[in-house]
Amino acid sequence: MNKEFWNAEVETMPREELEIYQLGKLKEQITLAYEKSPYYRESFDKAGVHPKDIQSLEDIRKLPVLTKKIVRARQDVKPILGDLTVVDEDQVVFISSSSGSTGAPTASPFSKRDFDEFQDVESRLFWQAGMRPNDRYIHALNFTLFVGGPDVIGAQNLGALCIWAGTIPSDRLIFLLKQYQPTVIWTTPSYAWYLGETAKKQGIDPAKDLSIKTIIVAGEPGGSITSTREAIEELWDAKLYDFYGISDIFGACGAACEFNDGIHIAEDHMIVEVIDPETGLPVAEGERGELILTTLRKEARPMIRFTTGDIVTCTSEKCQCGRTHKRIKVVGRTDDMFISGGVNIFPSDVEHVIREIEGITGEYRISLITDKHITKFNLEVEREETANLSVDELKKVVEHDIKSRLGVKPKEVIVLKDGELPRATHKAKRIVDLRKEGIN
Ligand SMILES: [Zn+2]
User: What spacing in Å lies between the alpha carbon of 317 and ligand 1's midpoint?
Assistant: First the structure.
């Protein structure tokens, strides 16, 4: 029960050995894809590359990337699982499905082995976040179609007492937190903040009256933003761990460790690449680029060079925890990035700055506008009731700090009262695009 790692051999494997393992599995996965999936055969042939051309991990770059758009289109070619799927439907035991908010929903199929391995990875990541069999875990994630739902099974397989809460109204959730005193919860960063604030308004101090000591978050960059993380940790008197998942692969593909310096990706199950989305070339270690993932062990549907749409930085340096698997930090979604004054800006860049300013609540909203055909942004923040600075003074501080850290000033900073911005119950919507179509 007190072992340090869930699977020490895999998690601390020397990189040289890990890469030999990855190359062997990569060859198998690519051969499977080429032999069984009409899509992969067609796309590899078109790119003039054959599985036998993959002789090193770097050779993966010879293969075409796979976008969500392709996955969606190929689902229509062969309903319902698409022609990237390499097994018959009777071997598929589970599909998660995207919400369809950015197009037709896509199904992500798992064989029995895929599902069991998915849950073993979840157990590993929960263990890494300090969960042990004597913990009580409350799973406050959506169960409907969402790939994060079944992650609770990973906690159960680890031996924790699991409470399948799902996304219930916050009053009900606070009641459960009081009643059952769970020690670990999983939610989004913005909801962790909202829930703590709401409990406080009801006279319940999350730090003193509740037993949560570990908060697991995913789905937004907040968990990797030091100032946001620390604010949530203080509110709850708990330690926060950031997880990273993607419905096309696993509910969580990686998690932070106790040193909180990036998310370790389970590299025995997938290959991590970080590329420049414009050129498709790999970026230097530590530079920002788009995260590309390739599965190594998927039986139902291999995902070869899947473009996640997440902008990350990555390091392969060994972590203080002893784990050798690469660590990523998520900066934001490619869709959320905007360019103003020649600077690439993510909402998380703004969040970094404003979470450090005294006297504002930390909630914010960015509105993109066009001014003489140029993209500019307005920034709304909220003044805390107890703030020492006036509205005008806060406005100046926010303007100054954004300009000095990001290199570009908001067109206008609007200081609202505490509670005027909408609170997120799932993922916070931080950007409103008010630009006229076709102009940016
Ligand atoms: Zn670590």
Answer: 10
Interval between CA 234 and ligand 1 midpoint (Å):
22
Q: Decide: 182 and 216 in contact? Cβ < 8 Å.
A: no
pLDDT given for residue 257 in this prediction? 96
Residue 200 CA to ligand 1 center (angstroms) comes to 33
Contact between residue 139 and residue 165 where contact means Cβ atoms under 8 Å apart: yes
Ligand 1: centre distance to CA 349 (Å): 24
Q: How many angstroms separate the alpha carbon of residue 322 from the centre of ligand 1?
A: 6
Whole-number pLDDT of residue 313: 96
CA gap 63, 70 in Å, rounded: 15
Give the per-residue pLDDT at 103: 65
In this prediction, the residues of the chain whose per-residue pLDDT falls under 70 are 1, 99-103, 425-426, 436-440
pLDDT of residue 424: 73
Task: Quickly count: other Cβ atoms within 10 Å of residue 349's Cβ.
Answer: 18
The answer to whether 304 and 66 have CB atoms below 8 angstroms apart is: yes
Residue 260 Cα, ligand 1 centroid: separation in angstroms? 7
Cα of 128 from ligand 1 centre, angstroms: 9
Give me the pLDDT at residue 223, please: 85
d(CA 228, CA 231): 5
**Closest Cα to residue 147, out of 104, 103, 97?**
97
pTM listed for this prediction: 0.87
3-state secondary structure of 400: helix
Contact 225, 243 (CB under 8 A): no
Q: Which residue(s) pair with 433 in the sheet?
A: 368
pLDDT of 49: 98
CA of 354 relative to ligand 1 center, distance in Å: 28
- For residue 230, the CA-to-ligand 1 centroid distance in Å is 18
Instruction: Check residue 215 and give its pLDDT.
Output: 98
- At 102 the pLDDT is 59
C-alpha 385: how far from chain center: 33
d(CA 411, CA 379): 8
